Amino acid sequence: MDFDFLKDCVSKVGVELTRENCESLSRYYEMVVEKNKAFNLTAITEEKDFAIKHIADSLAGISEIPQNAVLLDIGAGAGFPSMPIAIVRRDVSVTALDSTAKKMNFISECARELKIDNIKTIAGRAEEQRNLFSQFDVVTARAVSSLNILLELAMPLLKIGGRFVAYKTDESELDGAKSALETLGAKHVSTKSLSLPNGDSRAIMVFEKIAPTPKQYPRLYGAIKKKPL
Ligand code: SAH
Asked: pTM to 2 decimals?
């Protein structure tokens, strides 16, 4: 991967990469491309596209992550945004969660190869991780589900005062999430709107857990899907 291009892309979302960061991100890119031949991880494999749409995008949210935070990424897939976050923010303790075990095995493989020891993985569904409820300072999710559904998955996992960082294209889902916010004891804190270096617009939306999640949430996925809050 071209380090100058990568650095430039990422600096446009406000993050300065070290040479070591570039080496790790570049190796990670190679591993995704290699794995993608055997197992579909992403449609974005061209180098510049990957730098913009996967790496810069994933890193656009890091200003919302407090120092030494304990973070969980719901539906991490091949590791977005969790893997770039773990590489660049070595102070953050990252857990990548996805219902597809093969994807989590891939992230573990990358972490071993890159010697990034601040990321671990769990294969399973977010709404079924009762032992993880109230454990996290930050929960992230990108391209997983609609905002109202994500709030039901994310809020139980957060400590009170913890923050859910949703990677979205714009704020259009906010109105439809009003009742979910109220029911779950969450509030919208801020939205960072930005353009990726290719002009794509992004909205990094931050929600704070202000009250304990009522006991009946999260419901089973079937019920969440059928009757979203
Ligand atoms: N965040 C990644 C992957 C998005 S694809 C990216 O931005 O590229 C959505 C992923 O979410 C899939 O890998 C799917 O397995 C996972 N997923 C969907 N619902 C989930 C749930 N309830 N719990 C855990 N993983 C889930």
From this structure: 0.98
Ligand 1 centroid from CA 214, angstroms: 24
- Measured CA to CA, the distance from residue 21 to residue 181 in angstroms comes to 36
How would you label 189-210 residue by residue, b for 16+ Cβ within 10 Å and e otherwise?
A: eeebeeebbeeeebbbbbbbbe
Q: How far is the CA of 79 from the centre of ligand 1 (A)?
A: 10
Residues 102-143: tens digit of each pLDDT: 999 999 999 999 999 999 999 999 999 999 999 999 999 999
- 93-98 and 119-123: which strand pairing? parallel
Report the C-alpha gap between 211 and 4 in whole angstroms.
45
Our answer on whether the CB atom of 88 is closer than 6 Å to any ligand 1 atom is: no
- State how far the Cα of 71 lies from the Cα of 52, in Å rounded to an integer: 23
CB within 8 Å of 49: residues ≥ 6 apart: 198
Asked whether 166 lines ligand 1 (CB < 6 A), one says no
Ligand 1: which atom is nearest the Cα of residue 98? 25
Phi-psi region of 178 (alpha: psi -120 to 50; beta: other; left: phi over 0): alpha
**Whether the CB of 152 sits within 6 Å of ligand 1:** no
